[in-house]
Amino acid sequence: MNFPQISRRRLSTEVAEHLERKILNSDIDEGSRLPSEKELGLSFGVSRNAIREALKTLEERGLVRVENGRGAYVTAPSEEMLRSAITRYVQSRLTSDTVDEFYQFREVLEGATARLAAMRSGGHDFQALSKALATMEANEDNVDGWMQGDVAFHRALIGATHNPFFITLLEPVVDRLREAIRVSFDAEGARGGLACHAAILACVRNHDPDGAHDAMLATLRDSAQRVKRVLQEEREVE
User: Among 2, 7, 81, 86, which is most exposed with the fewest C-beta within 10 angstroms?
Assistant: First the structure.
């Protein structure tokens, strides 16, 4: 295997990124044993310590399995590893300065989610969505109960797409809704949010893709306005 010599940034980070690209591009097959730390160090032109740190990073990402005395073996990243990585990314990037970008991202993906759910959903999906909506309705004055129902609704909608890519990639994003809900929750917003979610469910149940898409956008824009209003009020107080 040929690897480029490293001359900038933190050496272990550079090595990890090069190896990660090769693994994800299938240049190195799953199950293959990587060269020894000494051989990798010579190929990259870095110390064994840098190689050891790089392998530790790759192991944390679920891309290699390090066995004492035997070496490092390439593994396929698990869904749980991927979800965890997405969760960490969203958590680190979601701030008061990125609210607009976050909701733009949600509009594109969750609008498509609602559209696909309206096309593919069935009886079990309707039950899950209805149960989540009932939880929201029963907790219009209870932020914790409302959060439970709201997150469950969006997770059920993702599940109703019956598309594993949506489920794996979007569920970690939906799980971060709790912060936005807690920041913006009030009785008036809860009533408006309940009506928006009920409209989504009605369109999904009626297999109306365009209606479901538009209802989702209305829901997200209502939520974004409330979150931004609260954040603006907090800035003015400061």
Answer: 2
User: What span, in angstroms and rounded, lies between the C-alpha atoms of 218 and 200?
Assistant: 10
What is the per-residue pLDDT for 7? Answer: 47
Dihedral class, residue 45 (left if φ above 0, else alpha if ψ from -120 to 50, else beta): left
CA distance 175 to 179: 9
Helix locations, 94-186, DSSP H:
99-120, 123-137, 143-159, 164-175, 177-184
Please report the DSSP string for 143-154 in residue order. HHHHHHHHHHHH
Which helix (H) or strand (E) segment holds residue 63: the answer is none
Residue pair 167/161 in contact by the 8 Å Cβ criterion: yes
CATH number of 80-237: 1.20.120.530
Just give the CATH number of 8-74. 1.10.10.10
Q: What is the CA angle 200-203-205, rounded to 5?
A: 105
